[in-house]
Write the structure tokens for this entry.
Amino acid sequence: TIAAIVTGAAQGAVSIIRVSGADAVAIAQQVFAPYSAQRRHAAAAGPAARQAPAAGHPDPATHAAAWQPESHRVYYGTAIDAGGTVLDEVLLLTMLAPRSYTAEDVVEVHTHGGGVSAARVLQRCLEAGARLAQPGEFTLRAFLNGRLDLSQAESVAQLIDARTVAAADSALAGLSGGLGREVQRMRRECVDLLVEMDARLDFDEDLPPLDVPGLIDRIRRLSQQLEATLQTARHGQLLRTGLQVALVGRPNVGKSSLLNALSGTERAIVTHIAGTTRDIVEAGVVIGGIPITLLDTAGLRESVDLVEQIGVERSMAAARQADIVLMVLDAQAGWTPGDAEIAAQITPAAAGADASSAARQLGVPPAVGSRFAAVVSTSAATREGLQDLQQAVLSLAGAPQLAPGGISWAVNERQGEALIRASEALQRVQGSIADELPVDFWTIDLRAAVLALGEVSGEDVTEEVLDSIFSRFCIGK
Ligand SMILES: Nc1nc2c(ncn2[C@@H]2O[C@H](COP(=O)(O)OP(=O)(O)OP(=O)(O)O)[C@@H](O)[C@H]2O)c(=O)[nH]1
Ligand SMILES: [Mg+2]
């Protein structure tokens, strides 16, 4: 039986201690004195005690035997120590097996927040026979008891870590089992294929010959479905980690103004003086559900000012490590030699090709314009073109159009890696069939695909993998 404080460390009105396992009810009987039992106790002690029922100290020995909780009920009472001293006024919630998160008996004690009450009640639960839960252990039990498949369990962690609504929606879609079901279906198809091939290896004479074109067709279709599943991997990563977008350019071209306009804040100081921004200024925004960190930087120019020199160095460092670099030009000044120098530094190789009308209007030489993925005209003052800029950032990031409500589950890195292995194995099977290698060779790789798919849904998963997944959870989840 395990126990942990499951609410966050931040200050709050209520903290929750969760106890799960075979002894959860026995522990609750020692730790918790229901108010109804106290009242009976107080009534027996006489009218004076009845006036202050909450202060009545029930005898732990008598109430423990008397009180038997029903499932899915909330009880009001006090948490008490071994001597019957009140630790806190609490609510106790019971969820008996199998109708609980872990599919075991679960008891939750809701104490006052602030940490001290919860810590005392948890300590009391441990004295009464519980063990402190490991990170992710409640969810691990839910998985081991068949309440969740592995991809659902991982979605729980993703949901807790979600930084945006879109990321949370995607985790919720995963929690409802979308990915697990899809992968289980693909794995079953692989197993079916494997059985057919294995049967030919064992009893070749008795069976009709393999329908090779049919097999090739089925494997090709599987490969395609696997690819489609993998496509969501990139999306999932974007939602989780977000993007860093650096704004660079000559001094006084409006970088800080653009950061303020995009983030709807006055984070960065804006003046008409060139060289206003010296240090990196960060602002977080959410574009299309993706958390984006905007980095405003010092204007790039040769400077004798030491502070500005350091600022310029930091600008270049920010541009190097950012996922996307927005080079800002002054539309009035047009393309200047200073811009050409910066463009040469930040676009080493040819990127997308877009010698657009915006680029021509700005006087960007076509050869340079084509080195940028997109050229967009904006005004920080009138907010013109800001949406186009956001859209350009999204499509450059490879984000699919995020239709509200149309968000599907996303694949995380571990799952993506296993899916890639499965996909490669299927490709090898196709190669072996094309090269007319013996059927043994086909089955080796098909078996590898089955194992890789099983790692995603949790059907073929090693203890090591489980450890590494659940150790990343927080304690209490
Ligand atoms: N008309 C107009 N003026 C702008 C726009 N963006 C910025 N400005 C003006 O341009 C001047 C410089 O703006 P900043 O945002 O400080 O420019 P910066 O690139 O951050 O400058 P440094 O930090 O010195 O490198 C300010 O006077 C702004 O009001 C714009 O879109 N339209
Ligand atoms: Mg600035």
